[in-house]
Design a protein that fits this description.
The chain is α+β, with helices and mostly antiparallel strands. 44% of the residues lie in helices and 12% in strands. This is DUF3391 domain-containing protein.
Length: 406
């Protein structure tokens, strides 16, 4: 049986099934292992991990601790309540924005690559070349955030570092917009998102692209990148305080367990806290050579749980409404047995988006693509519901091929 327990309840002899944190937080080479010493428990606590999942069938039990299923049910109920609140209506259809979004994705990735190369050579960042890209991303988000955000969910190991920065910029702009922030603040936040990982230009490639867990020494080098990025951006005299703050503090946590300054609640700025959520969300949903990305739905569930300690709970909930429980581009299984791709959120219920169905899993055949509005009843273009998100790799499909009809 799997149970969720507080880190203070851990004892040698318990079997860790899941450390319940993002992969860049914990100091262990694996997620599942038998606790053999108090030192291992101290390392878990020191890493800012507050609760873990234990397997009582492989180690010691904890009486009266909730099962993993019970905690998931509690989280699910909270997400249902969050999902029932309004979202922002788009100005153009997804199909209209996709071609423009594809161009922005390619150009922005190339720009970040150039920025990283210049930083590695000791050059100052030329904001005149970066600013127009942030403006293009912002305009795309204003037209239809699902197009660019959906397109950026697909990354490969060769361009992950660059597309991650583009994703953080895009998501942060959308987040600011959904929270009603003014135009200049949104732009400055987007600039910070695009440049937040500039310090990784100084991390050796063999560490940055290592196909496995980092050693303590390697992790210490990676943890220098916020400060290094901050120092690099200071070379550009026109850089503002918001991009500098986001770059330096996007790995800080509300409980003080982050880095580089171990700032806690009350000292980390609002935008840096927002950037922290966005950064983790994009990282844990991406496939890397050393870990499989979570579905967006599962990542949001994790962020909701981590918001008890690491993230501002209100910001975490607002981010969920911003991106949607099932973001545009998510492959989903419907109760009818049909596969579909989410093409638009519902205005008031994020659990009932519009889905473009294209495959019948019960008959194992492709079907004529059809848009299903899950918020509508049977006979009115609806009458179905999402059972779970699905892996595109499992079904060998590219979700982006099935959203152009939106």
């Amino acid at each position: 049986m799997l149970k969720k327990v507080d880190a203070s309840q851990l004892r040698p002899g318990m079997y860790i099934h899941d450390l319940s944190c993002d992969w860049m937080t914990h100091p262990f080479v694996r997620n599942r292992f038998l606790l053999t010493s108090e030192e291992e428990i101290r390392k878990i606590v020191a890493a800012g991990i507050h609760d873990v999942v234990i397997d009582c069938g492989k180690g010691l039990d904890v009486d009266h601790a909730p099962t993993l299923e019970e905690t998931r049910q509690s989280t699910e109920q909270a997400l249902v309540e969050i999902a029932a609140r309004p979202v922002i209506v788009t100005r153009t259809t997804l199909g209209e924005e996709l071609k423009r979004a594809a161009v922005i994705r390619q150009q922005a990735s190339g720009l970040v690559r150039t920025v990283m190369q210049d930083a590695r050579l000791g050059k100052a960042i030329e904001l005149d070349s970066v600013s127009p890209m942030v403006e293009n991303i912002t305009e795309s988000i204003l037209r239809n955030p699902g197009a660019l955000m959906g397109m950026l969910r697909i990354k490969n190991k060769d361009d992950y570092t660059f597309l991650h920065s583009v994703s953080v910029c895009t998501l942060l702009v959308a987040f600011c917009r959904s929270r009603g922030m003014d135009t200049d603040t949104t732009y400055q936040a987007g600039l910070g998102g695009l440049l937040h990982d500039t310090g990784k230009a100084l991390v050796p490639d063999h560490i940055l692209n290592k196909p496995g867990p980092l050693t303590d020494e390697e992790f210490a080098i990676v943890k220098k990148h916020p400060r290094d990025g901050y120092d690099i951006l200071l070379k550009s005299p026109e850089i503002g305080p918001i991009p500098l703050d986001i770059t330096l503090h996007h790995h800080e946590r509300r409980d003080g367990s982050g880095y580089p300054d171990k700032q806690g609640e009350g000292t980390v700025s609002e935008l840096a806290q927002m950037a922290a959520i966005v950064d983790v969300y994009d990282a844990i949903t991406a496939d890397r050579c050393y870990h499989k990305g979570m579905s967006a739905a599962e990542a949001l569930r994790q962020i909701y749980e981590w918001s008890k300690f690491h993230f501002h709970p209100t910001y975490a909930q607002e981010f969920m409404r911003c991106v949607g429980i099932y973001p545009v581009g998510t492959l989903v299984m419907l109760e009818s047995g049909r596969l579909g791709v989410v093409i638009a959120p519902h205005e008031t219920n994020l659990l009932a988006p519009k889905v473009n169905v294209f495959f019948n899993t019960r008959r194992n055949v492709y079907i004529k693509p059809e848009t299903v509005d899950l918020a509508r009843p049977v006979g009115f273009g609806g009458g179905d519901k999402i059972v779970r998100p699905e892996s595109p790799q499992k079904w060998n499909v590219d979700p982006m091929q099935f959203i152009s009809v939106a």
